[in-house]
Design a protein that fits this description.
Blueprint: E1 4-8, H1 12-24, E2 28-32, H2 35-45, E3 49-53, H3 61-70, E4 79-83, H4 88-97, E5 101-104, H5 109-146, H6 153-167, H7 172-184, H8 194-197, H9 205-212, H10 214-222, H11 232-237, H12 258-272, H13 284-296, H14 302-315
Parallel strand pairs: 1-2, 1-3, 3-4, 4-5
Helix pairs in contact: 2-3, 3-4, 6-7, 6-12, 7-12, 12-13, 13-14
């Protein structure tokens, strides 16, 4: 297994010994003598594994680890803390800093190689997962690009729904799911023909049946990715209505997942405030009045809509109609 390993230790002898050993095993190895150099090398080298000494002058290993795990580009890179410390508090601090494993000095060579190979396998799986996620997001963006009138629709939904989620004080993992769902919620439209997707007018009942399949197809596309599990209910149910008249499952009330109810408000608002070939976009305030009437009809959660309306009015960021279509079909 070939992997890139960064060794961080202020003792040149220790660095050299580890580097020689790991190079003999076929690994691509670089080293750094202190915290700032290690962070700079991470940015240039993009290691698959970091062997990090704790006791270093200036920035210690705990702080280096925290910074590595706080950086989006390196947060999933495994970090092994190498320490002569044995106190439980030190290991707890390492765990809190984000360390993935520990090695005690003096280092046992067989243990080092076993843990190195294990963590490199884990990093390989993580990279494969990230690549799969990237493909899904790219596919979603390509679908949006099919319709020139929907430019920016997904980014606006990701932003608005995440802000509403924060205002409702839902858990951070649900806010992350909303951000992702904003981008991929319509990925199932990959199976919808352009003649339907780009039709400059109302859809026939038969065409609407085809369009309504996109939420189920989108769920199936994303289902194999474990990291997308919190996103799946949003993709499937963001066209449900509180009174049970939506699709694909006719769910009603609290049966509709909370995150799906959040995103659907942003989706409807964005559709109303965007131009379409057969309807001019309405102003922000007109859109909110329409949605209020729809909430009274039982389509949306009235209490949640009230918070959404307050959020839009507070920001005043979406008052100008955009020259894009973004219809909710």
């Amino acid at each position: 297994m070939i992997g890139k390993i960064l060794i961080v230790d202020d003792e040149s002898g220790a660095r050299g010994a580890l580097e020689t050993l790991l190079r003999r095993e076929g690994f691509d190895v670089r080293n750094a003598s202190d915290g700032p150099s290690a962070l700079a090398e991470c940015a240039k080298f993009s290691p698959d594994l970091i062997l990090l000494d704790i006791l270093m002058p200036g920035m210690n290993g705990f702080e280096v680890c925290r910074r590595i795990k706080a950086t989006p580009e390196t947060r999933l890179t495994p970090v092994v803390l190498i320490t002569g410390l044995s106190a439980t508090e030190d290991r707890i601090e390492g765990i809190n800093a984000g360390a993935d494993d520990f090695l005690s000095k003096p280092i046992d060579i067989n243990e080092l190689l076993a843990r190195t190979r294990s963590l490199l396998r884990l990093k390989q799986y993580t990279d494969e997962l990230e690549n799969a996620e990237a493909v899904v997001f790219t596919l979603a963006q390509s679908i949006e690009a099919r319709d020139p009138y929907t430019r920016g629709h997904c980014e606006r939904l990701a932003d608005m729904s995440a802000r509403l989620g924060a205002r409702l004080e839902i858990p951070e993992e649900d806010i992350k799911a909303l951000r992702w769902a904003g981008i991929v919620h319509d990925i199932g439209k990959v199976v919808v023909p352009d003649a339907i997707l780009l039709k400059p007018g109302p859809l026939t009942p038969e065409e609407m049946d085809v369009m309504r399949k996109h939420s189920v197809v989108g769920e199936r596309i994303c289902e194999p990715l474990k990291s997308f599990r919190p996103v799946l209910p949003i993709i499937r149910h963001h066209h449900e209505k509180r009174n049970g008249s939506g699709y694909p499952d006719g769910k009603s009330g609290e049966e509709i997942p909370l995150t799906a109810r959040i995103l659907q408000l942003a989706d409807v608002y964005d559709a109303l405030t965007t131009n379409r070939p057969y309807r001019t976009a309405v102003s922000s305030e007109e859109a909110l009045l329409i949605m209020d009437d729809e909430a009274k009809l039982g389509w949306w959660d009235q209490g949640m809509f009230n918070k959404f309306r307050d959020m839009i009015r507070d920001r005043c960021a979406f008052d100008t109609p955009r020259n894009t279509r973004g219809a909710v079909k």
